[in-house]
Amino acid sequence: MTTLHPTRSVTAIALLVLAFLQIPVLVVILASFSETSYLTIPPQGVTLKWYEAVLSDPTYLRAIKNSLILACASTAISLVLGVAAAYALFRRVLPGSEAITSLLISPLVVPSVVVGVAMLQYFTLTGFRGSFMVLIIAHVVITVPYILRSVLASLSGLDLSVEEAARCLGANGFTTFRLVTLPLIKPGLVAGALFAFVTSMENVPVTIFLASAKQTTLPILIFSSVEMGVNPSVAAISTLLIVATALVLLVAERWTGFHKFA
Amino acid sequence: MTPRRSAWLLVSPLLLVLTLAFFVPLLLLIPTSFREYLPGQGMVPGSFTLENYARILTDGYYLEVVLRTLVLGVAVTVICLLMGYPVAYLIVRGNPRWRLALTLLVIFPLMLNLVVRSFGWIVLLSNRGIVNNLLTDIGLIATPLKLMFNMTGLLIGLSHIYLPFMVLMLVAALQNMPRDVEAAASSLGSSRTHVFWSVTLPLTAPGIISGSILVFVLTISALVTPRMLGGPSYQVMATLIYDEYMQLLDWPSGSALSFALVSMTLLIIWGSSRLTRKWAGLA
Q: Record's GO cellular component, any one (chain A) (predicted)?
């Protein structure tokens, strides 16, 4: 059978677009090694001084620490809450399972900036604003839909008879879940967790309304320092993030065939 | 325990968290949007006014911002569609050996921190940025082009940010399409262009629609990229909401604008799902 392969011009355009997608990444990496405070092509001189500046700056170090704690904590909580809910919803024993599912995914539909201002007002009025726990809960709200979505997708491909077999052989509900269901939905779980982690790590619109100066996260720090003008330290910290993202993506791809879940 | 009871037990923790930290905060914005605001004093408790909503539709400045947001949404969607289709086509119909590598090239920018990507565009587009430097060096321009703090900058930046979403949606649509339909049309003597316009494009329409909706909704609600590339003077709805809450402390006006943004988003999603359902009924 003949299939229509892309013509040469389509291929050329597609490759150009793919190159366009990588340009800002390459530019940031180049800028981080540049001697001058603004980047020229070709770059003038190579230096590591911006990396040194960033990695010895307590403000940056604290922001990195805050971001990691926040992302780990909110992803972990979202995983527990999301997997439990998805497991119950996929069986459709509850009245209105569909409606509950769309309700639980609805934080994805509301613009983040609106979620941010709603939480700002609410947590200011209730007096909880400024507590780190509030930030974690806020991040659970914005990350849990991703986990719910990918776990539900994995569960829908699950053969229920495997679970029944385990039950017949005498395993109780939790043992069945732990030893049979969980390994089977692992790819979806990993993909969902990764999306949740990345979403938390890059969130600005919600965090910026809730975080106190001490709780500043890395993206907030970059976001606000850019308002002061282009600074190669930002390029250095950005390059570190680019490398970390690339590594995580490659590991996830090896581990679970991640691209199928994107 | 009955299956239904244990199911409730599993769902309720998440339902509780979302109610307390998402639904209630959102609902509490409603009364705020009807409060009067006095500069220097803040919200007037117990007051009721429609002024905050009326302003969005009558005040020239607000109208300009709303209109700009919508124009931006449509333009970015069209750009993403035009740039995304060839990429999706290459991924699905090209050499299968390249598929994984090409897909990863699409996903990588998507996974990358939003502020980093926007910062990359600042390095490129600012007055002393790479693009302007390059053009000046080869003598094409004498004074730097204004590529930031205007529509150009936002269009470039936002199209770049949301292109991966469009590509992934189109890839899914192209994969779901039965291949032999194209082959059949082609073997019956249809030209390549004709096959594309009369077979491929209509069959991938659901993907085109859902990708467009996604990009449009994301674009009109974007805060980070518009602020970083547009600055404090070139506002869109999301950045204006941000400023009303953080700089002007005019919460009533900010929350009215928030609801305007939410209803625009919901209207688009609702309208499109009706449209797709109608089409599915016809098919």
A: plasma membrane
Q: Which of A208, A145, A111 shows the shortest CA–CA distance to B220? A: A111
pTM: 0.90
DSSP A6: P
Q: Choosing among A15, A70, A117, A141, which should be mutated to test the B contact, i.e. which has the most B CBs within 10 A?
A: A117
Q: What is the mean pLDDT of residues A143-170?
A: 87
Cα–Cα distance measured from residue B232 to residue A226, given in angstroms and rounded to the nearest whole number: 12
Is residue A7 assigned to a domain?
Answer: no
Of B24, B109, B262, the CB nearest to A122: B24
Contact A29, A242 (CB under 8 A): yes
Query: Rounded to an integer, what distance in angstroms lies between the CA atom of residue B146 and that of residue B142?
Result: 12
Q: Rounded to whole angstroms, how far apart are CA atoms A256 and A88?
A: 24
Over the stretch B218-275, which tens digit does the pLDDT of each residue have?
999 999 999 999 988 899 999 999 999 988 889 999 999 999 999 999 999 888 888 7
CB contact under 8 A, B105 and A173: no
Structural domains counted in chain A: 1
Please report whether residue A192 resides in a domain: yes
Nearest to B90 among A11, A219, A230 (CB): A11
Nearest to B220 by CA among B205, B207, B239: B239
Contacts made by residues A87-92, CB under 8 angstroms, sequence distance 24+: A87/A151, A87/A155, A87/A177, A87/A181, A87/B10, A88/B6, A88/B7, A88/B8, A88/B9, A88/B10, A88/B11, A89/A152, A89/B7, A89/B11, A90/A152, A90/A155, A90/A156, A91/B3, A91/B7
Sign of the Cα pseudo-torsion (B132, B135, B139, B145, in order): negative
Q: Please, where are the H alpha helices in A33-57?
A: 49-55
Report the C-alpha gap between B53 and B269 in whole angstroms.
Answer: 22
CA-based nearest residue to B185, from B202, B175, B200, B172: B200
Domain that holds residue A179: 61-231+247-261
Q: Cα–Cα distances in Å, from A37 out to A45, B117, B144?
A: 11, 19, 18
Q: What is the ipTM of this complex?
A: 0.90
Do B17 and A119 form a contact (C-beta atoms < 8 A)?
Answer: no
B13–A84: do the CB atoms touch at under 8 Å?
yes
Is residue A132 in a domain?
Answer: yes
Domains in chain B, please, with CATH? Answer: 53-282 (1.10.3720.10)
User: What CATH number does residue A204 fall under?
Assistant: 1.10.3720.10
